[in-house]
Design brief:
The chain has about 450 residues and is of the alpha+beta class. The chain has a single domain, classed as Outer membrane efflux proteins (OEP) (Up-down Bundle). About 65% of the residues lie in helices and about 15% in strands. It is built from 9 helices and 8 strands. α4 runs antiparallel to α5 and α8 packs antiparallel against α9. InterPro entries: OMP_efflux (IPR003423), TolC-like (IPR051906). Belongs to the outer membrane factor (OMF) (TC 1.B.17) family. Keywords: Cell outer membrane, Coiled coil, Membrane, Signal, Transmembrane, Transmembrane beta strand, Transport. This is Outer membrane protein TolC.
């Protein structure tokens, strides 16, 4: 039996060590970096940037020589006959002879080359290739910024719940201590049983609240792990840290023209302008060079080189092709007008985006100012509530206060701390929005 207990202790120690080792201490910066490397949005955005290079290669390929080779072999079981005057072959005038042309077997092999010399649409496409790369690079930056914002908000939600849990555990420990004191008095015949029962009910309620917060914390941690692309089964621990409050962030003036959203719309407008030019290029003539070289063989036997029954001849040709558009019923003009409408719509979107970004910036500043006022008020409330709790506890022990007053003081102290935690969270969320408005979200990755 003793041996079984020793093995159980060893296994418990082994599993406990494994559990502790599997826990991941996760700071905000580490969470953001992990998300930028592992979250699906970040991976797909990076793949789009890579894919843009292949799109550019595809466009550039149109400006390079195009080479192709073709070969074919045909067998003609029945040769088509043509009607010819018999007198050509010395026959009677007026007679007609049916003569078959061609051979049973025919083969050819051809190599061709073509090169664009002037094609305005192709030249515009080459200009658009570079702009396309820049568009996807900016879009990748915007994806990263949105991901940083999402991770930061999820991180602070977990942090706030942890602070609520810490506050409740302190309150629970204090209430348990009070219950133990009352129990001692009741056991000694100096206290009331009803006071012990009421304190036990308060302890049970706090333990139920604690379990609810633990459940909520687990759900929020899972949401955070999903937001950064981490395995849900991984255990994470947020470090013990305090929320820093910086007044410098409020003093900064945001320039919406520096925002990634505006840069992306500007680049999109450039692409639409190039698209319009590409459509206009349909009015321009195009010039291309072509050349070919090949062999043609015919005979009544299966084609082979050197066979007397099959004859080969080579051929080649060089050409300059010029295509001049004259009239297509106004289709090009209609496409140009559609392209211009797309440009105007993007400009409208840009103005609306600027307005929205300015609104978000002002709202974030207002929220921060309100949060600062709330934080200062709640800090004072926490100090005051702690003094009231200490005095009430002292008065209760000396018979100068009721148990109800003591429990109310403990609840007031817990509420003051929770209100302070909520105000701190609201401040940090507003701070993230203001940092975003200043176009500096990526600075969160490098924060110390």
């Amino acid at each position: 039996m003793k041996r079984i207990k020793i093995i159980a202790v060893l296994l418990a120690g082994l599993f406990g060590a494994t559990y502790a080792h599997a826990q991941e201490v996760l700071t905000l910066q580490e969470a953001i970096k992990y998300a930028l490397q592992n979250k699906a949005e970040a991976k797909k955005s990076a793949l789009e940037v890579e894919n843009a290079e292949y799109q550019i290669e595809e466009v550039r390929a149109g400006a390079k020589p195009q080479l192709s080779a073709n070969a074919s072999i045909n067998y003609n079981p029945l040769l088509q006959k043509s009607a010819l005057p018999a007198e050509i072959f010395g026959g009677e005038p007026g007679e007609t002879l049916m003569v078959a042309f061609g051979q049973k077997w025919q083969a050819n092999a051809t190599a061709s080359v073509s090169q664009q010399i002037f094609n305005q649409s192709l030249f515009t496409g080459l200009k658009a290739a570079k702009t396309t790369r820049e568009f996807y690079q900016i879009n990748n930056s915007l994806t990263e910024e949105n991901l940083i914002e999402k991770v930061a908000n999820a991180y602070y939600q977990v942090f706030q719940t942890q602070m609520q849990l810490n506050t409740l555990e302190i309150n629970l420990a204090s209430t348990k201590k009070t219950r133990d004191v009352i129990k001692g008095l009741v056991d000694a015949g100096l206290g009331k049983k009803i006071d012990l029962d009421r304190t036990s009910v308060a302890v049970n309620n706090l333990e139920a609240q604690r379990q609810q917060i633990i459940n909520a914390l687990e759900l929020q941690e899972n949401a955070l792990k999903f937001a950064i692309g981490m395995d849900i089964t991984t255990d994470i621990v947020l470090p013990e840290e305090t929320f820093d409050i910086s007044l410098e962030t409020i003093a900064e003036t945001a320039d919406v023209n520096n925002r990634t959203e505006i840069a992306l719309l500007n680049k999109q407008t450039e692409l639409l302008e190039l698209n319009r030019k590409s459509i206009v290029s349909a009015y321009y003539p195009s010039v291309s060079f072509t050349g070919n070289f090949g062999y043609l063989g015919m005979g009544n036997v299966f084609p082979t080189f050197g066979s007397d029954g099959f004859k080969w001849s080579n051929f080649s040709g060089l050409g300059l092709n010029v295509s001049i558009p004259i009239f297509n019923g106004g289709a090009t003009r209609a496409r140009i007008r559609q392209a211009e409408i797309d440009i105007q719509k993007t400009r409208v979107d840009m103005e609306d985006t600027r307005l929205g970004l300015s609104l978000a910036n002002e709202n974030a500043k207002t929220q921060i100012k309100n949060s600062l006022l709330t934080i200062n008020t709640n800090k004072s409330n926490v100090v005051l509530a702690k003094e009231v709790l200490d005095n009430t506890n002292n008065n209760y022990q000396n018979g100068l206060a009721t148990l109800t007053e003591l429990l109310d003081a403990e609840n007031a102290y817990a509420d003051a701390q929770n209100n302070l935690n909520t105000a701190l969270l609201n401040y940090k969320v507003a701070e993230v929005q203001l940092i975003k408005a200043n176009g500096q979200l990526k600075s969160l990755v490098n924060e110390k």
